[in-house]
Write a structure and sequence with these properties.
438 residues, Jelly Rolls, mainly beta, 37% strand, 7-stranded antiparallel beta sheet
Length: 438
């Protein structure tokens, strides 16, 4: 499989699976070569500013109107969109879950998505839904298109092959894939069952964060993002096209694969990124910087500096700050934080927070390291230390997150999670002495 590197978000690409497919100098010639149809896919309004405008021209065997015909409503009961009615009695609080068990029957990627939290409004194109996926079967004759938002997929177990109408992307633990709104695809398993996390973004498209005083280099480099080269299925077989629209699911029976784009050009396409190429930055003398310095992608909200959702990672890195509490500090945040662990240990929660698990610390609910992590941090010799074999992430959003009934009733819910702070004791010394040890 061949991939093309993105030289920067917003730049255009051109790729063809059959030589001579793309027209020279115009987008929709009177007659496309090879008997193809020209079709534009727009991810923004036609009149969006040039720097933000996202669209691609697809040259395909049949136009999409042949792939989405008479539709019927179907039910994917565990996949929810905001706003949702609260149909459970899980109280407000800090919550944590262990890994969701893999199903013991064939379940495809789309069938295996279960929503954990939602915030915002799918109809107003604001907010997110955060899901877990568990899959044990490839999508053979099913195809999917999400009209509600883009999907940021974070595998934790197993390799996935996303066969999109614009080409193929394979991703595994330590990598991410982004499937834009309106792009058709199916998901195949490469090496057995898979599990991971999905952020469904209803707001503005993910983009790289501004670097500000950091300068031109650091964090995620645009050249490390990869888009697929053109690949297509010229396949006649009874199939099903599933479409998500305004939180509902519809399906159409079709006779041919919709992944029939022979060539395309533009700047609206799926992409992948290897998180191990992220260049972390941090303090080199004292103090603990805000986690925003680990932002990989951001979906702006329109309010400067306050994201619809940020995708943040906590990778391997050196910690060198002097006289500084190095783990994440105790805090309450206007943003809501959903965290997951891809592999290794997380330094603020070395026990209980395991790969495949996740936690929710909602808007203004206090949280921070447990007692063991706190004691370890204040008693440590603050020599340079490298955190190794660790990769955690966070979806951070300005919108409060409502857990779903699936999340509230899951056996993976750790109902005693808040007890991890119960052994924090009074340490106040009015004489002004610094207390350590216990």
């Amino acid at each position: 499989m061949t991939l093309r590197y993105m030289s920067g978000f917003g730049n255009a690409f051109s790729t063809e699976a059959v030589p001579g497919t793309l027209p020279d100098g115009q987008n929709s010639p009177q007659r496309c070569v090879h008997g193809l149809y020209a079709e534009q896919l727009s991810g923004t309004a036609f009149t969006a500013p040039r720097a933000a405008n996202a669209r691609s021209w697809l040259y395909r065997i049949l136009p999409s109107v042949r792939h989405i015909g008479r539709m019927r409503r179907i039910d994917l009961p565990n996949w929810k969109s905001p706003p949702q009615s609260i149909d459970h009695d899980l109280s407000l609080g800090q919550h944590r879950w262990g890994p969701i068990a893999l199903p013991d029957r064939p379940v495809t990627f789309v069938e295996g998505i279960a929503t954990i939290t939602t915030g915002g409004s799918v109809a107003d194109q604001v907010g997110t839904a955060i899901h877990i996926f568990t899959t044990t079967a490839s999508m053979r004759d099913d195809y999917f298109m999400n009209a509600d938002g883009e999907l940021l997929v974070v595998p934790e177990m197993g390799q996935l092959l996303f066969f999109t109408e614009m080409g193929r992307l394979s991703v595994g633990p330590g990598e991410i894939a982004v499937l834009p709104r309106g792009v058709k695809f199916k998901v195949e398993l490469i090496d057995g069952p898979a599990r991971g996390y999905v952020c469904e973004n209803f707001g503005q498209r993910f983009t790289l964060p501004e670097l500000g005083p950091i300068g031109a280099n650091g964090l995620a480099n645009s050249r490390d993002f990869e888009t697929p080269v053109a690949a297509f299925e010229d396949r006649a077989a009874p199939s099903r096209m599933i479409v998500k629209w305004c939180g509902n699911f519809n399906a159409a029976d079709i006779a041919r694969s919709p992944l029939d784009v022979v060539g395309w050009h533009g700047n609206y396409a799926p992409y992948k990124y290897d998180l191990r190429k992220f260049c972390p930055m941090g303090p080199v003398l004292f103090d603990h910087a805000d986690p925003s310095i680990f932002t990989v992608l951001t979906s702006p909200s329109g309010e400067p500096g306050t994201a619809n959702v940020d995708f943040v990672i906590f990778p391997e890195r050196w910690m060198v700050a002097e006289h500084t509490f190095r783990p994440p500090w105790f805090h309450s945040n206007i943003m809501s934080e959903f965290m997951g662990l891809i592999y290794g240990r997380y330094d603020a929660k070395e026990e209980g927070f395991v790969p495949g698990g996740f936690s929710l610390h909602n808007c203004m609910l206090p949280h921070g390291p447990d007692n063991d992590a706190f004691l370890k941090a204040i008693n440590s010799n603050l020599a340079p230390q490298k955190l190794e074999n660790t990769l955690a992430f966070m979806f951070e959003t300005r919108l409060p997150q409502q857990p779903t009934a699936f999340a509230a009733q899951s056996p993976a819910l750790q109902r005693g999670y808040a007890d991890c702070w119960s052994s924090l004791t009074k340490r106040f010394d009015p004489a002004g002495h610094t207390m350590a040890s216990s």
